[in-house]
């Protein structure tokens, strides 16, 4: 099934971007209807983060998320197999001076989990920079090979397996090679603190603070937005964060989540709501996803 899906994505990348976007939107509508378990995860996340929305509004936002996610999925065909000029046409860059202006310290590119995450990361490598990153090993060897190929095809990029810890990233940063770092998934209680995300305590990994401190690195946020229709994406670099890390890992986690929350409010359908962001709970608190499954 995985090989069939990859073959379909490869075939679709020959379509014009506008047509590809329409195919993705249709696929998203199908997934919303059929992927019941993941739909419930998305709706639970939206209920927790946007309590002011009524049920109909949450369903509308969830549908929009599935459409945006599926569109990003099929557009990976361009990222993985298109030419360099195809990728540059699909994804434009803004605010690059915020990164290029830092020459005296290592740089961590803070890249939250929006559906354009790969588009931004692959596009950055087209700029001629060596940018290393982190990935999770896949169960499918074929998928693993494609992911590594796609993310490293335009530069001398190294992907560090998340399972290998932070030492490879620190070594990369100290050698002058930036790291495209994804810090906003629930990876369990280990090396995490609870910090509010939309007012809900969320297990937030402290790796950003620890790596920045050990490597003496500067944080430059880097967020990718999917544009309407077939207009592609824009990856935006933000000014470097002053006074980070602060020496207080919980305060740092709050700052991280507040920044991501602000970006989510700008494009709520594009955050990766398919992930169980609130799976790890404070002691004695039930998982909201178990509760939702019981109510379904």
Residues in helices, as a percent range:
40-55%
Low-confidence stretches: none
CATH architectural category: 3-Layer(aba) Sandwich
Helix-and-strand structural type: alpha/beta
Q: Span between N and C termini?
A: 28 Å
Q: What is the β-strand count?
A: 9
Gross geometry: globular
Number of domains: 1
Can you walk through the features of this model?
- The chain has 296 residues and is an alpha/beta fold.
- The protein has one domain: Glycerol-3-phosphate (1)-acyltransferase, CATH 3.40.1130.
- Helix content is 49%, strand content 15%.
- The chain is built from twelve helices and nine strands.
- The chain has helices spanning 2-12, 17-34, 36-49, 55-81, 84-90, 97-100, 117-125, 141-152, 167-174, 207-215, 249-266, 288-295; strands at 91-94, 107-110, 132-135, 159-161, 179-181, 192-197, 200-205, 218-226, 233-237.
- The strands form two sheets. A seven-stranded mixed sheet has the order 1-9-8-2-5-3-4, with helices on both faces. Strands 6-7 form a two-stranded antiparallel ribbon.
- Helix 2 packs across helix 4 (55-81) and helix 9 (167-174) runs parallel beside helix 10 (207-215).
- The protein starts with a helix and ends with a helix.
